[in-house]
Amino acid sequence: MKKPLGIVLIVIGVIMLAYTGFNYVTTEKVAEIGPIEINAQKNHTVKWPPIVGLVFIVGGIVVIAVDKKK
Asked: Which residues pair with 30 in a beta bridge?
């Protein structure tokens, strides 16, 4: 019953090992003078350590192993 959960955890772990982060851009209004607007784009980086991916993989394996014992 918990086998799909284990598979999802393993897939997420592999993806987290392959991609250790991502970037996204936001636009912020800096100034507004009458009809003229000045905007600035800011890059934001989200990173996680590779050990988190390994924890997800091991957790998925444990969930599958416990499910097979029952």
From this structure: none
